[in-house]
Design brief:
mainly alpha, yeast vps74-n-term truncation variant fold, two-stranded antiparallel sheet, 13 helices
Length: 364
């Protein structure tokens, strides 16, 4: 990771309802504050890109796997999903919408208000400056540089992993160190505040229907006692390593998706009261699976459990990477939908991106 990158200042996070009202400020009083607070769209402290990066980051070493060549492409898909969840983009409508696949319909911008995240705003400006509408697949290709057209190289977002890591340093989650790799020095970013990654892992385990007491950070293995009892730093009780299985989580043997808040959370306060909270978790698991980082939090489990957890992630991608969502699947839950007609535009973009992630091996 380049150490010449400058640290950035993170702008105050605005709620989507504030952004929808011209002339308002984050502290401006709004009518029906109780109702608005209950349906708050306030963005979480971590973006989908940062969560996916954290899952792939080695805690102590502070760098990603050198052999992961799919993560960069996945991070661009996370940007599109994050922009949709923040109501900045949608898939365009036309007279033939019902007969056209989502992957064949272009994206359009519905708001250019800054998000407070530099990479998201940069992607939004690139999309705004495009001379022609483009599909989800086209934008993921352009933003990641996965295109043979040299004339389109200006759309590529460079040094995304390093910039995301620097952003997490600014948020106090990572720290910067210099590490020697035989012939050269490289800036690395070990985990400074393990609670952030622990909370991300717990949310992933909930979605995969794994027991929360199995969400032991890999760093706890190295500091475990001779008896096999680890002392995780995520505020949860110590647990001995034993056989865990898919279907032992908060959803039980039924396996349906279920929303449950993370106890004593620092980075996801009021998560269960936000719109698209459960859909955001599906986006995270889909990105982690496609980006080959889902195995990292499962490393202390037996091979059979890991295979079943990855299989569940792939099944989720099949259900929610299809539009409309496959409502007849056991993994579909009505809680994923907010019930408001205007929110369908968010779900359409998410479905389109997950559909592309499922086909990544054919695209890269």
């Amino acid at each position: 990771m380049s150490e010449g990158l400058s640290r950035r200042r993170v702008a105050p996070v605005r709620s989507a309802e504030d952004e929808a009202r011209p002339g308002t400020t984050p502290n401006s009083p709004t009518p029906n504050s109780a109702t608005d607070e209950a349906k708050s769209d306030k963005a979480p402290l971590l973006t989908l890109m940062e969560e996916t990066l954290l899952l792939g980051l080695k805690d102590q070493e502070g760098y990603l796997s050198f052999w992961n060549d799919s993560l960069s492409y996945v991070l661009r898909g996370c940007m599109l999903m994050e922009l949709a969840l923040r109501r900045r983009i949608r898939i365009s409508k036309d007279a033939f919408t019902g007969m056209t696949n989502l992957s064949d319909r272009p994206l359009e911008i519905i708001s250019t208000r800054p998000t407070g995240e530099v990479l998201l705003d940069e992607a939004l400006r690139a999309m705004k400056g495009s001379e022609a509408p483009r599909t989800v697949t086209s934008w993921m290709d352009l933003l990641s540089g996965e295109t043979w057209n040299i004339a389109k190289a200006g759309y590529q977002l460079k040094q995304v992993r390093e910039r995301l890591a620097k952003g997490l340093v600014d948020k106090g989650i990572l720290r910067t160190e210099k590490r020697n790799f035989l012939f050269f020095d490289m800036a690395t970013h070990p985990v400074q505040d393990p609670r952030a990654k622990d909370e991300v892992i717990v949310r992933v385990f909930d979605t995969l229907n794994l027991p929360r007491n199995a969400a032991v950070p890999t760093r706890a293995q190295r500091s475990s006692s001779p008896s096999g009892t680890a002392s995780p730093s995520n505020g949860m009780s110590s647990t001995a390593y034993r056989a865990y299985g898919v279907g032992q989580g908060i959803s039980g043997s039924g396996g349906r998706l279920k929303m449950a808040g993370v106890p004593n959370t620092r980075y996801y306060k009021g998560e269960e009261e936000r719109r698209f909270a459960l859909l955001r978790r599906v986006c995270l698991v889909s990105a982690a699976c496609a980006g080959s980082v889902l195995e990292n939090p499962l490393v202390h489990m037996d091979m059979e459990t890991r295979d079943r957890a990855v299989a569940r992630a792939e099944d989720l991608m099949d259900v929610y990477g299809h539009w409309p969502f496959k409502r007849d699947s056991p993994l579909y839950t009505p809680e994923i939908d907010t019930g408001e007609a205007g929110d369908l535009m968010v779900e359409e973009v998410v479905a389109a991106v997950i559909c592309v992630l499922r086909k990544m091996d054919k695209l890269i």
